Amino acid sequence: MVSELPLDQVRTLLAVVDEGTFDAAATALHVTPSAISQRVKALEQRTGRVLLLRTKPVRTTESGEVVVRFARQLARLERDARAELGMSEAGEPTRVSVAVNADSLATWFLGALTQVPRELRVCFELRREDEDHTAALLREGLVMAAVTSSPDAVPGCSVRALGRMRYLPVASPEFRKTCLAGPLRDALPEAPVVTFDRLDDFQDSFVRRLRRGQGGASPVRHLVPTSEGFVAAVAAGLGWGMVPEMQAAELLDAGRLVNFAPERSVDVPLYWQQWKLDSPALAAVAESVARVAAGVLRD
Length: 299
Prior knowledge:
By secondary structure, this protein is α/β, with parallel strands linked by helices. 44% of the residues lie in helices and 20% in strands.
């Protein structure tokens, strides 16, 4: 692939994507905007594909995502090689970018990062994203690895099962008494609900399963976009919600939450996807994540 794709053109495409415009890429690479345009056009002619949509900021096409992902992997390999050859700046750390869902980030994931050997001098760049969407960041080449709910490997990536995160349908005792007093299939569609953001369909899916595919959660919903804040909002009685077992356990024991449908817990499988790179730092992160996940997630 390297012989077919001129590296200066590949790096130029990556610069345009990262900087957002041809002019900004020209400034970053210390060349003229015309040179940037010519390199991108030459790369498109060589691949026979449109790689960029000339919007502001630019957007990659599906083919462009493939080349950008290759460019980022190439940059990672180059940095690792320079470090092994002693050509990197003194003390320069290795950066590992990871996409991870908010609930994993709030419960077990940071503990896994602390297990990575310090002598590797790894800097972590974390991107918080829903587990259903973290794979998209891998596909776009924006991260090197991701905790995802998809077992289907992104092109150029390997997949490893981590375990299942269990979610419990919970509410405060007072909310349970006042808003969920009747049959759940009738009460839940009317009861206020807490959701993570506008893309969060978890609570709606729970109601649909309960009602055999019909309806969803109440339109009276509170959007709380942090994992810790979500749990606090449910415990405060703003609404009901699906809370990770690891976060709910202490509050259940203290009587601040009740599991109103103990037979209907939901298990979400999690997977680790990462670039297929011979990177010691990335390998160490993967091993730490898998080891800690095995101890805290369900089989």
